[in-house]
């Protein structure tokens, strides 16, 4: 089963050490964002959840994501104080998910570190339907 984090935690970019795959009998509510399975998400949802699975959000965004209904409550998420870089990534995820909030390209490029910018660029490729590594 593909996980949101496969590229970043299982041999992809230079992220944290690989996480164990969840046991198939594990309740999805007990899984972190990085361990959630991805079936059922469209390109918009896959792009947004890839950004929200970034290591900087580990364990902090799951409460606003309904993995069963494939919905993300961005308005509620945006009510929480975030660092400037985190906010930009959330805005980028929201922009790719439904376009309600915008993340400026210049601000993304000048603010995010290389790893987080690569995550956003990969999410853009997924949203476009190119996949990753193209």
State the gist of this model:
The chain has 134 residues and is an all-alpha fold. The protein is 40% helix and 3% strand.
3D structure, described in words:
The two termini are about 20 Å apart. Residues about 1-30 have low confidence and may be disordered. With about 130 residues, the protein is an all-alpha fold. It has a two-stranded antiparallel sheet with strand order 1-2. The chain is about 40% helix and about 5% strand.
List keywords for this structure.
mainly alpha; 134 residues; single chain; 3% strand; globular; two-stranded antiparallel ribbon
Helix and strand topology:
Blueprint: H1 6-9, H2 43-52, E1 65-66, E2 71-72, H3 74-77, H4 84-97, H5 105-111, H6 114-128
Antiparallel strand pairs: 1-2
Q: Give the overall shape.
A: globular
Number of helices: 6
Determine the structural class based on helices, strands and strand pairing: mainly alpha
Chain-averaged pLDDT = 78
